[in-house]
Amino acid sequence: MLTLDAPNARNLKEGINFTKSPDGQCFIIYKHQDTIKACRNQCKHQGGCFIKDIEDMDGRTVRCTKHYWKLNVATMQYVNPPDSFLQDELEVVQSVDGGLKLLELDPPDPWDTDPRPAQELQPGEITLTYITHACMELKAGGKSMMFDPWLTGPAFARGWWLLHEPPIGAVEQLCQADLIYISHMHSDHLSFPTLQLLSEKRPDIPIYVGDTSRPVFWYLNRSGVNLTNINVVPFGVWQNVDEHLRFMILMDKVHPEMDTCLIVEYKGHMILNTVDCTRPNNGRLPRNVDVMMSDFAGGASGFPMTFQKGKYTESWKADYIKAERKKLLNYKAQLVDSLQPKVYCPFAGYFIEAHPADRDAITEPPSGTQVFKDSWDFDVYVDKLNAAISSEIFEHKSWIQFYYHWAGFQDYNLVIRMIETDDDFQPLDGGYDYLVDFLDLSFPSTRPQRDHAYLEIQNRVGVIRHVVLYGLLWDDLYIGFNNRISRDPDIYHHRFWKHFQSELPLSAPDWDSFLRNFSTPRSTNTHFIHSDSNSVTFYFWLKFYSLLQRVFHYFW
Question: Cβ(230)–Cβ(182) under 8 Å?
Answer without folding.
Answer: no
